[in-house]
Design a protein that fits this description.
Shape: globular
CATH architecture of the largest domain: 3-Layer(aba) Sandwich
Largest sheet: 6 strands, mixed
CATH superfamily of the largest domain: P-loop containing nucleotide triphosphate hydrolases
Number of helices: 17
Strand order of the largest sheet: 7-9-10-4-11-12
Distance between the termini: 56 Å
CATH topology of the largest domain: Rossmann fold
CATH class of the largest domain: Alpha Beta
Oligomer: single chain
Number of domains: 2
Length: 526
C-alpha cells in the first residue's frame, strides 16, 4: 500500500447535468455553433460551426494560425468563447475547464507528451485519474490495469518507466490515458508529429478500428493529407480564423483540401521593388541535412541559393522541416550533413561569423528565440552590439550609450514601450517583433536577413510595417530568406517561391509565374 496523488474511486464518469443523458455505450454528439474567440483586437476564431458526429473520425485542417488550436481549447475549456455555443447531444453546455470536458466524455491528447518520465506506465495511468488524494492498493490496481490493457487497442508494458519508452509507445500511452478515463471523444493535436510513418499508421489504424466499432469519436488536428485521406471520414477546414470548407473525405481530393486551406487564387500583390544590378550569391546551402528533436530526419539534401537584392520565400505546411532549417542557419541546431556558405566563405553560424558576414534574423516566437524576457528593451536591442564601441570600453559596458541607441531605435521603428528600461516580455507581441526588427535591421551593412513567420499573430498595422521593412532591406541589396506559412505573405513579398514538403523542396518558381494549383499539390506532398 502506497500513497499517490490520485483516487481510489472507479474511473466511470458521472455526468454533471442529470438532465443530459449520455449513453455509456456510444460517443456523444458534439456541435460547435457560431463560435467566436477574440483576444483584444485580434479575432482568432470568427463565427465557426462544426459537427462531430458520434462514431466518426473528423480531421481539422488549416495552416498555422488558422484557428485550429483556439477552437479545440474552447471545446476543452482552456478558453471561454467570446460568442457562440457548444452542444452535447443537442443540449447547450458550458465547459469552463478540462475537468468539465472530462465529465462530458471529452479528452485531449496534446502535441507534447504529458507523462512523468521517472514514473512507470502504471503509475502514470493511475496519476491521470481525476479525484482526491488517496491510498493506492497496488495489488488491486495492477490487476485492474492488466485487465484494462488486455482489452485496450494499445499494448504498453505497465512496469516500464516512461523514460525507457520509444516515441511511438509514449504516444500510445497518451491515448491510453484518455481511454482509461473513459473519454468517448478524443481530440488529437498533431498526434503523429514525433512518429515514423509506420508508427503513425499503426496508432491511427488502431484508433480507426475503435471509431468503426462505435466506441470513440476522434477530432484530429493534422497537416498530413496522407493520414487524412487514409483514416478520416470528414474534414473541416479553417483559414485565418474562419470556416473555409468541409466535406466527406470520400468526396474530396487532396487538391480540393489544399484549395480550401489556401483560399481563392490571388495574384501577387504589387510592392515597390527596385531592380538590383549585378546580383551575387550571398547564401549558398549545399546538400544540408538535419534532424528533429526526436532524432527523426527533418530535412535532407537541401540545396538553396539566395542572391543579393532577392527575397526567396519558402512555403509549406507546418512541420515539414522549415523550422529546423531556420534553426540551422541561425546557429540554433546542428546540421548532420552538408555545408552552408555565406559571401563565398564556409559559414557555421557562430556569433563572430554572423557579425563578420552581417547575417541577421527575425525568428519565429521572438520572446523564446530572440529575446531575454526579463531583460529591458534597451538591453535586448543591444544583444548584438553590447561588447563593441561605443556601447563598451574594454570589459566595461557604457550603459548611457546602450540607452541612447535604444531611444533612437524605439523612435525609428515605432516601438510602443513605457520606457527603454521596461522588460521586453511586458510588450505586446507586435512591439516585441518591432524591437527585434529594430535590432536586426539597424546595422549599416546587412548582407543576409533570415525571417521566419515574422508576422504571425500580429495586427494589420504591425504586419504592414514589417513587410515594408523587409522590402526596403531587399531594395538596399540585402539577400532575404523568408520562411512563412502564410501564402499570401509569400506571394506579396518574394521574388522566387520554393515549397518544402516532407523535408524536401518539391516546387520552385519565380513568384510572378508560379502556378497556384501546382503549389497546392506540392504543399500537400503530391
Amino acid at each position: 500500500m502506497t500513497t499517490l496523488s490520485s483516487s481510489t474511486a472507479s474511473t466511470a464518469i458521472a455526468h454533471p447535468l442529470q438532465e443530459i443523458a449520455l449513453h455509456p455505450s456510444r460517443p456523444p454528439d458534439l456541435q460547435v455553433n457560431n463560435m467566436t474567440k477574440q483576444f483584444g483586437s485580434l479575432i482568432a476564431l470568427e463565427n465557426l460551426s462544426m459537427h462531430l458526429k458520434p462514431g466518426s473520425f473528423h480531421a481539422l485542417l488549416g495552416e498555422n494560425g488558422a484557428g485550429k488550436s483556439t477552437l479545440v481549447k474552447c471545446i476543452m475549456g482552456f478558453y471561454e468563447p467570446t460568442a457562440g455555443e457548444l452542444l452535447i447531444d443537442t443540449h447547450p453546455v458550458q465547459i469552463s475547464n478540462p475537468r468539465d470536458a472530462h465529465r462530458y466524455g471529452i479528452g485531449m491528447v496534446y502535441q507534447h507528451f504529458t507523462s512523468v518520465p521517472a514514473m512507470t506506465v502504471a503509475e502514470n495511468l493511475v496519476l491521470s485519474r481525476f479525484g482526491k488524494t488517496g491510498v493506492i492498493n497496488w495489488k488491486a490496481e495492477m490487476e485492474a490495469l492488466r485487465a484494462f490493457i488486455s482489452t485496450s487497442p494499445f499494448q504498453v508494458p505497465l512496469e516500464i518507466p516512461i523514460a525507457q519508452l520509444a516515441a511511438g509507445q509514449k504516444q500510445k500511452l497518451e491515448i491510453l490515458k484518455q481511454i482509461y478515463l473513459n473519454s468517448r471523444i478524443l481530440i488529437l493535436d498533431e498526434p503523429t508529429s514525433v512518429l515514423t510513418p509506420a508508427e503513425a499508421d499503426e496508432v491511427l489504424g488502431l484508433l480507426r478500428e475503435q471509431v468503426t466499432d462505435g466506441k470513440l469519436s476522434v477530432l484530429m488536428i493534422s497537416h498530413k493529407f496522407r493520414e487524412v485521406m487514409a483514416f478520416a471520414d470528414e474534414i473541416t477546414v479553417l483559414r485565418k480564423g474562419k470556416f473555409a470548407g468541409s466535406g466527406r473525405v470520400s468526396d474530396l481530393t487532396v487538391s480540393d483540401m489544399a484549395e480550401m486551406m489556401m483560399g481563392e487564387k490571388k495574384e501577387p500583390t504589387p510592392v515597390a521593388k527596385t531592380t538590383q544590378p549585378n546580383p551575387v550569391p550571398v547564401l549558398d546551402v549545399r546538400q544540408i541535412s538535419a534532424n528533429k528533436d526526436s532524432g527523426l530526419p527533418a530535412f535532407a539534401g537541401i540545396d538553396l541559393t539566395v542572391h543579393s537584392g532577392e527575397i526567396v520565400g519558402i512555403a509549406g505546411i507546418s512541420g515539414n522541416g522549415q523550422r529546423e532549417l531556420v534553426e540551422v542557419l541561425a546557429g540554433q541546431r546542428e546540421a548532420v550533413a552538408g555545408e552552408v556558405w555565406v559571401n563565398s566563405e564556409r559559414y557555421r553560424a557562430t556569433r563572430a561569423e554572423m557579425y563578420r558576414h552581417q547575417v541577421f534574423a527575425l525568428p519565429e516566437e521572438p520572446l523564446r528565440n530572440a529575446c531575454v524576457g526579463h531583460m529591458s528593451v534597451a538591453e535586448n536591442m543591444a544583444l548584438r552590439t553590447f561588447d563593441r564601441a561605443p556601447q563598451a570600453k574594454g570589459p566595461l559596458l557604457i550603459l548611457q550609450a546602450i540607452r541612447q541607441m535604444a531611444v533612437g531605435l524605439i523612435g525609428q521603428f515605432s516601438v510602443k514601450t513605457p520606457s527603454p528600461e521596461t522588460p521586453v516580455q511586458n510588450l505586446s507581441g507586435g512591439n516585441v517583433q518591432r524591437a527585434v526588427l529594430a535590432r536586426e535591421l539597424s546595422a549599416d551593412h546587412i548582407k543576409l536577413l533570415i525571417a521566419a513567420n515574422p508576422c504571425f499573430g500580429l495586427d494589420f498595422a504591425a504586419v504592414d510595417f514589417i513587410h515594408t521593412q523587409i522590402i526596403n532591406a531587399r531594395n538596399r541589396g540585402v539577400a532575404v530568406l523568408l520562411v512563412s506559412e502564410d501564402l499570401d505573405e509569400l506571394l506579396k513579398l518574394s521574388d522566387r517561391l520554393i515549397v518544402i514538403s516532407g523535408g524536401q523542396f518539391s516546387y520552385q518558381s519565380p513568384t510572378a509565374t508560379a502556378d497556384f494549383a501546382t503549389i497546392g499539390h506540392a504543399m500537400a506532398g503530391h
